[in-house]
Amino acid sequence: MILVEDLTALPEGSRVVGDGFIGHCPRCGRNGVRRLRHDGSLRFVHVREARMFGDGLKVEPKDFCTITQTAGAA
Questions:
Q1: Which residues contact 23 (CB under 8 A, 6 or more apart)?
Q2: 42-53 and 2-6 as β-strands: parallel, antiparallel, unpaired?
Q3: Coil, helix or strand for 36?
Q4: For each of the chain's 74 residues, which pLDDT tens digit applies?
Q5: Cα dihedral 29/35/37/41 (nearest 10)
């Protein structure tokens, strides 16, 4: 079974179970879930795909924006 979720259709502030809250993406202006990555960058996931396997559920982002955070000049 495959489920595709379009998070851009949800209003800002909506809670997405397991991922947090819908926010406004500063890069493209669409709504998405803000996720902090291991390398320190931010990812706003706009569309995600969930697949059910015999041993569990796998959720992958399909449409997203990555925002790299740079340190301010001293």
A1: 12, 31, 32, 33, 34, 44
A2: antiparallel
A3: strand
A4: 889 999 999 999 999 988 889 999 999 999 999 999 888 889 999 999 999 988 888 989 999 999 987 655 44
A5: 30
CA angle centred on 14, ends 63 and 46, rounded to 5°: 5
User: How many residues can be counted in the chain?
Assistant: 74
65, with CB counted inside 10 A (0-12, 13-18, 19+), is: middle
Nearest Cα to Cα of residue 31 among 8, 50, 15: 8
- The model's pTM is 0.82
Supply the DSSP string of 50-63, one letter for each residue.
Answer: EEEETTEEEEEEEE
How many other CB atoms sit within 10 Å of the CB of residue 14?
Answer: 13
Contact 17, 7 (CB under 8 A): no
